[in-house]
DNA sequence: ATTTATATGTTGCATATACTACTTTTAACT
DNA sequence: AGTTAAAAGTAGTATATGCAACATATAAAT
């Protein structure tokens, strides 16, 4: 078999242009950068994201976190459960629980914030204003 | 406790500007879009990405795929194993195996390509040239 | 008020991912 | 040649994610 892809010749897009795989790849790169800086703090970049979001939302229904971060409700459920086990989050015992940072959680946010600001500075330095504009652009366009 | 974050007042970046979480979120949105269109083809967006990459690389050492996609070697090992189980990929039995698409694999690439082109058209329509420029910009900057 | 529909949460399952430790192979050095 | 160092692969473990199925609670409709 020759395996000649009939789309290769004048294909409108090349596989390497795939928007999905490129975003995933860039995400992995940036996340890797975050992890390198978080290695001493025993927390993942995803958990940090949720802590930061919750520090702004205060006491909220769990579901709102998923809406804000575009995360499936079951994913939120499990992520929150891990953070609760770590003592960073408290949950009301309702069926539809409201969640909230504990004192430990707020302390962790304060610990992480300067580290995060440092990482941001580095990344902004790497991406430059054009890179940031690009990211904002992507976001705006995806919202609709 | 007051939970007054001393960084809130004149903090250089707001948590919502986090480059990591924003990229992750956009990735989830775009991947979700891909999944919606792939639902009839019993394949994930990640597996499609590897199939497309392999269709260009032909017979390669497994490790090269990880280099190309910025994936950890163990991740590649498992992803390839799943594709092998599906019959899309064949692996030499060496300790350091070379991998290759099977005829089934190439057939799947041909099946997926028009679908993928359609998704790309939609996404390019959503993002526009400015969104695409932004993505390219991010990539260029991350490479260095 | 009862029933129905919708929204929210959790659990089971499968994939995706990275890190560590271990194995094996190849390369380098002497 | 023999030893050491580096590279590549795999398996174990933990987190992250989404979907389907189910449970429960709230809202809507009659």
Describe the 3D structure.
Two copies of one chain form a homodimer. With 144 residues, the first copy, chain A, is mainly alpha-helical. Chain A has one domain: Arc Repressor Mutant, subunit A. In chain A, 66% of the residues lie in helices and 6% in strands. Chain A has helices at residues 19-38, 45-57, 62-69, 73-85, 103-143; strands at 60-61, 89-91, 98-101. At the A-B interface, α1, α2 and α5 of A face α1, α2 and α5 of B.
Give a quick set of tags describing it.
homodimer, 144 residues, mainly alpha, Arc Repressor Mutant, subunit A, 3-stranded antiparallel beta sheet, 5 helices, globular, DNA-binding, transcription (chains A, B), HTH_MarR-typ (chains A, B), WH_DNA-bd_sf (chains A, B)
């Amino acid at each position: 078999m020759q395996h000649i892809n009939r789309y290769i010749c004048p294909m409108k897009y090349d596989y390497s242009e795939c928007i999905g795989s490129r975003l995933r790849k860039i995400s992995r790169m940036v996340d890797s950068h975050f992890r390198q800086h978080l290695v001493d703090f025993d927390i993942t970049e995803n958990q940090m994201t949720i802590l930061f979001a919750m520090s702004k939302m205060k006491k909220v229904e769990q579901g709102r976190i998923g809406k804000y971060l575009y995360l499936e409700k079951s994913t939120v459920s499990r992520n929150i459960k891990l953070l609760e086990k770590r003592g960073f989050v408290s949950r009301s015992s309702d069926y539809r629980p409201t969640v909230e940072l504990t004192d430990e959680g707020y302390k962790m946010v304060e610990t992480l914030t300067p580290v995060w600001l440092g990482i941001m500075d580095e990344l902004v330095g790497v991406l430059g204003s054009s890179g940031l504009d690009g990211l904002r652009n992507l976001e705006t366009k995806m919202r609709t």
